[in-house]
Amino acid sequence: MSRLVKEAYVEQGMQLKDVALQGDIPQSTLRRVLNKPDTPLTALQRQRIEKGANLVSGDLDRILTDPNFRPRIKDRPLDAFKSPAEDVIEFLTKYVAAQPQEGQKVRAAVDVIWADG
After folding, report:
1. pTM for the whole structure
2. Which domain of life does the protein's organism represent (predicted)?
């Protein structure tokens, strides 16, 4: 489990301290759990690790029961200060395909924003 959790948060560009902060779990506890695989986990600790590493709820339980299961990373919301343009473009492409009329409203608003620039 620990290797899979580490792979998941590293893939997202996170560090242990980020997972601990986002999951509201002490770094020392998280480090112990990840470095000592036999450490028993409470349900709350599992939930906090999932939250901290952006994993789908319940995936740690599945890892513990199915050795072939790979945890899934949750879709992260766009962040105006951190999201790269590629993520915004991908979202808008899906959004317009799913909601063409709303997409037209977004396009009109974007045109207004850049008309002033």
Report:
1. 0.64
2. Bacteria
